[in-house]
Amino acid sequence: MHPRASVAGGPPQTDPQQYQQWDREVAESLRAAFGAATGRQVAAAYRQAFPPGYRDDSPVPQAVEDIAIMEGHPDQSRLGRVYRAPNQPLGGVRLRICWPDAAPLLQEVLPIFAGLGLRVADHRSYEVHPAGRPAARVDDFGLLHDLDELTDTSARLVEDAFAAMWTGRAERDGFNRLVLTAGLPWRQAALVRAAYHYLWQAGFTFSRPYVEATLAGRPRFVRALLGSRTGEVAYSTVASSP
User: Would you say 136 and 68 are in contact if contact means Cβ atoms under 8 Å apart?
Assistant: First the structure.
């Protein structure tokens, strides 16, 4: 089954007065986040930037966070943010990305999710056109995982691993599944990968996909191997969408 992709920006689904109220609340929140003078400038730039679908789908705090990322605010330096949408079932989570440069093709992103053991269930894409600034794109992915639940710590590990794989600091392979299954930071998953490469050069005959799958299914063994107590990943909640 292929992920469903939709580009927001079609006919408005909400009363125009509600859009106006949304715009006023965003502008007020931007003044609080950036300071009165800068906040007014930023609010003016983004007043007509968002399509109706974005406003329908995005609570005001989420929009302010997106704008802060697009503006390079120092408190918002993450490439992607993992969150739980209201009423989202167990086994599901969302990852929201404001691309800092030219937005990629979907096929460039899907292998990263696969390497982390995540499956894309749906995809929403929003074109943003702020005045006097380069156009941007916000992608929001609905993802499925095989755990009971994610902790906030594990969500941050996924964010870090996604950014590392996207920027080339981490390889895009199945060893990154250990981020979720064993609760490892991506650098510790890289140590396991390096150990496999060493054993392969020494004559180890098991294939890489086999080793990736085997270790992903034995998280306690992997943590013991590394002497790590990082990351119990079940039975808690990931940060909810505002």
Answer: no
